[in-house]
Design a protein that fits this description.
Order of helices and strands: HHHHHHH
Largest sheet: none
Structural class: mainly alpha
Distance between the termini: 35 Å
Strand content: under 5%
Shape: globular
Number of helices: 7
Length: about 140
């Protein structure tokens, strides 16, 4: 009975979910990119180099974040984002242990699950892709 009252808001809640996932992933990428840009200017020895793996990860996160945020090729972007989160978890977090709460990989796992949901459901009713193409392309 209680769930039926919220059923009419599922389109809005999915839109909010998609926008927040895209915005947070975009911020995640901008953070990496800002660190790399500052490192390039300051040439700090501990900072990642320009065109390093971290820099490419940041660029991917920015592009995927924007695509998911505005709802443009959301399923394709979600697939790329999910694959990146698998690589991030295996390459960066898993060597410190398998438990995501102990190895710092909980964000990678959460983004991975969010991208699986986006991959399954697409952009939703309100997206730039539907405005431009009148349907979801992928």
């Amino acid at each position: 009975m209680l769930l039926q009252k919220f059923e009419k808001y599922h389109l809005w809640s999915y839109l909010i979910f998609r926008v927040f996932v895209g915005f947070l992933f975009l911020q995640h990428g901008l953070q990496k990119f800002a660190i790399v840009v500052k490192a390039g200017a300051a040439a700090a020895p501990s900072a990642p180099a320009l065109f390093s793996l971290m820099w490419f990860a940041g660029v991917i996160e920015i592009v995927v974040g924007i695509a998911v945020l505005i709802g443009l090729f959301t399923r394709g972007a979600a697939l790329v984002g999910a694959l990146q989160m698998i690589v991030a978890y295996v390459k960066v977090h898993a060597p410190q242990g398998i438990n995501p709460f102990l190895n710092g990989g909980e964000l990678a796992v959460m983004f991975f699950v969010a991208f699986l949901i986006l991959l399954a459901h697409g952009a939703g009713k309100w997206s730039l892709e539907r405005v431009i193409l009148k349907k979801e392309f992928f």
